[in-house]
Amino acid sequence: MSWTDTQNFSDRLRWLKAERGWTIEDMCARTELPKGRLERYLAQRHTAEPKLDALVKLSNGLGVSLNWLALGKGPVTMPAERT
Length: 83
Known about the structure:
Protein name: Helix-turn-helix transcriptional regulator
GO molecular function: DNA binding
Number of helices: 5
Pfam families: HTH_31 (PF13560)
Domain HTH cro/C1-type: 13-69
InterPro entries: Cro/C1-type_HTH, Lambda_DNA-bd_dom_sf
Number of strands: 0
Order of helices and strands: HHHHH
Oligomer: single chain
Shape: globular
Radius of gyration: 12 Å
Structural class: mainly alpha
């Protein structure tokens, strides 16, 4: 599955987890979010929508674009920092 096949936030997060070979524990350590919250975000029947602070932690911790993670738009990875 490519990232373009993902339809919603939960799909994108599951794709990223599989693509990078991470466990939920890996993701918790990277994002500093509780395991239960990440499990809700990853759930197939996704009902939990993250708030902005959680989206920022996920984006920064997982090294992906906030725009891609939240909306599925743009490149997966964050653009290089400008100097």
